[in-house]
Design a protein that fits this description.
heterodimer; A: mainly alpha; about 75% helix; B: alpha+beta; Rossmann fold; OB fold (Dihydrolipoamide Acetyltransferase, E2P); 2 domains; six-stranded mixed sheet; five-stranded antiparallel sheet; 8 helices; about 25% helix
């Protein structure tokens, strides 16, 4: 009976995490082939079980600059998004924590409110704002500030706006949790010992909130690295990201093994910061 | 000139008046205890002196310098927090050296002074330890060393012994007083524990509802409480009410007898304090300062027993019966109580 509560999560993890992951791993070492599905199983039975791994998809990832640059670009976009989110989220979280108690719940709600609208309508709203005939260009032209529309949409600018807008709550929440756990008398003690408000922030607040900030960074960085929809809808058309490369391999080239290898490689790259973070946490 | 001068200090939070026009002077090298219950304003007073709260009115001067509008980091005084507020990400030495670092004290001097401060509290071997690996008593000492390392002329202590177990409390209390004498700094200690205040301080200031009700040396405060609150808060004295008669005694209907005090009594209705330990059992019968009563309850307290004795007039007296005087009278027995005139202290309010 005591094991029962563990049963459901275990079944969930096996059925919806471990098995799909095994399928993706199997796909990544399969041979592409004609037919449906477009690959040959990498194992079989020839008088006994045999494994016929095909390492070419992984070799391709390493050899072809196309994939490497997609990775670098994706990591840069994810890093910059996470950095921008952190920069915006820190003052927001601090403001909410230090607000009068009756304001905290409504302010947190305001941070979460975008989640209640759909994801696509939000991206669509940005398109409406940023496109050449959109609100921003319309207002600027109406005011006579510009003659020709600014190329706002389909740029890195639009991409980052969309990314930051979508992922900001993921950064605010862990920072808020970490800041609200902090004992405010520590800041008073620092001030009492002669620290100016800026020094208090640098020597006490910041170090104590660092784990929360790292969590916030990772919570944005990890999903942002694989993001496909926002760059596709708002970003420059030539922007090559892992998400887009994966999509193209899967749906356009119908090369499932390379697509799977890309997914596995992305997973491997993202596991590194997670492990680093966990080791840092364990040492504290 | 006193080291610390506080004039007309007022502070309210919302509709609650935390301090109401408080005046207080603290001399150099003095150990002052601020004693009061919760909501008395004692902690608010400490936070106002430290600069964490701004007063609504009044002034705070330290050695002649007006601190009232000065931010906390500029005030030349230090505070030891009730929770100790040790920085969890810094080692013991990092915590103690924090204030010196903020002052720009050179590295070499800082190290010497941190070592000195740690030696002073007996923690020289734990300089590299992180706070979460210290015991409660060790944390208390780190907090004390951190507050003293800048050699402040005034140290504020918020319930410094409050978080320690009973046996550690007494020893740490003695050490605290020795440290205060050695450093020559003035200590202002907030406490709700009357024993602690009486044992450690040179002077005790009793606060009630944001006002200073009495200040003086511990013995004076204990033996000559001025108000009903002070009499009952310190040592839980019996408060007896009566009317002054023509002979200058106090007719006390609750007790069914007449009280005589060595001090002259004011006119009209008067309240007097009578300490439980000043009441003697089964002394000679007199027509004043003596009453018969029935023992209603007996509580053994180790070195004495506390008796609740109901007098014929209905008043219940708390009486302390020392263990060395033999077993206390049993519940239900009738006893005669007596006390000296000097034990009867008239109260002003």
């Amino acid at each position: 009976m005591r094991r029962l509560p563990l049963l459901l999560p275990t079944l969930w993890l096996v059925g919806f995490v471990a098995l799909p992951l095994l399928v993706v791993l199997m796909l990544a070492i399969a041979e592409p082939g004609p037919g449906v599905p477009p690959f040959l199983l990498p194992f079989g039975w020839e008088g006994g079980p045999v494994l016929r791994p095909n390492w070419e998809p992984f070799a391709l990832l390493v050899e072809d600059d196309y994939y490497l640059s997609a990775f670098i670009r994706s990591l840069w976009v994810a890093g910059a998004t996470a950095g921008l989110c952190l920069l915006l989220a820190f003052p927001m979280a601090l403001g909410i924590v230090r607000a009068a108690p009756r304001w905290r719940a409504p302010l947190l709600l305001a941070v979460l409110l975008p989640f209640w609208t759909g994801f696509l309508p939000r991206v669509g709203a940005w398109i409406g704002l940023l496109r050449d005939e959109g609100w921003i260009n319309g207002i600027l032209r109406g005011l006579g500030v510009i003659d020709a529309p600014l190329p706002l949409l389909y740029s890195d600018f639009a991409l980052f706006i969309g990314m930051v807008h979508a992922y900001l709550p993921f950064a605010v929440l862990p920072l808020y949790a970490s800041l609200s756990r902090m004992d405010l008398t520590l800041e008073e003690a620092a001030a009492d010992l002669g620290a100016t408000p800026a020094t208090v922030f640098r020597t006490v607040t910041l170090p104590l909130v660092a784990p929360g900030a790292a969590a916030a960074f990772l919570l944005v960085f990890i999903p942002a690295a694989g993001e496909f929809v926002i760059p596709e809808l708002l970003g420059p058309s030539d922007a090559l990201l892992v998400g887009r490369a994966l999509w193209q391999e899967f749906f356009q080239n119908r090369d499932w093994p390379v697509a799977a290898a890309l997914a596995v490689a992305l997973l491997a790259v993202l596991i590194v910061p997670i492990l680093l973070f966990q080791r840092l946490e364990a040492r504290r | 000139m006193s080291l610390l001068e506080i004039e007309g200090l007022s502070k309210h939070f919302g509709s609650a008046q935390a301090l109401a026009g408080l005046d207080l002077r603290v001399e150099a090298g003095e150990f002052l205890a601020l004693l009061g219950g919760s909501g008395s304003g004692k902690s608010t007073l400490l936070r106002l002196i430290a600069g964490f709260e701004m007063p609504d009115a009044g002034h705070i001067r330290l050695a002649g310098q007006d601190l009232t509008a000065m931010p906390p980091h500029e005030r030349p005084l230090n505070m030891m927090f009730q929770s100790y507020a040790l920085f969890p990400h810094l080692s013991v030495a990092g915590n103690v050296g924090y204030g010196l670092k903020r002052d720009g004290t050179p590295r070499a001097e800082r190290d010497t002074r941190v070592a000195e401060a740690l030696a002073m509290v007996g923690l020289q071997d734990l300089a590299g330890r992180m706070p979460h690996r210290l015991s409660g008593g060790q944390r208390q000492r780190v907090a004390l060393a951190r507050a003293l390392v800048k050699r402040p002329r005034l140290l504020l202590l918020d319930e410094p012994l409050g978080a320690l177990d009973a046996n550690l409390r007494e020893r740490t209390g003695f050490e605290l007083r020795a440290l205060q004498r050695r450093t020559g700094a003035s200590f202002i200690m907030v406490t709700h524990d009357q024993q602690e205040a009486l044992a450690l301080a040179d002077r005790v200031a009793v606060l009630e509802k944001g006002r200073l009700v009495q200040i003086g040396p511990p013995r004076d405060i204990y033996e000559r409480p001025e108000t009903r609150f002070v009499a009952t808060f310190l040592g839980a004295a019996n408060v007896l009410e009566g009317t002054r008669n023509r002979e200058g005694g106090l007719d006390c209907p609750g007790l069914g007898t007449t009280l005589r005090a060595s001090a002259p009594l004011p006119e009209g209705t008067v309240a007097c304090a009578l300490r439980p330990e000043r009441i003697v059992l089964n002394g000679p019968a007199q027509d004043f300062n003596s009453a018969e009563g029935v023992v209603e309850d007996v509580a053994f307290r180790g070195d004495d027993s506390l008796l609740l004795v109901r007098a014929p007039g209905g008043a219940v007296l708390r009486v302390s019966h020392a263990e060395e005087d033999g077993p206390p009278p049993p519940t239900g027995s009738t006893v005669r109580l007596g006390w000296e005139a000097a034990a009867v202290v008239p109260l002003s309010a």
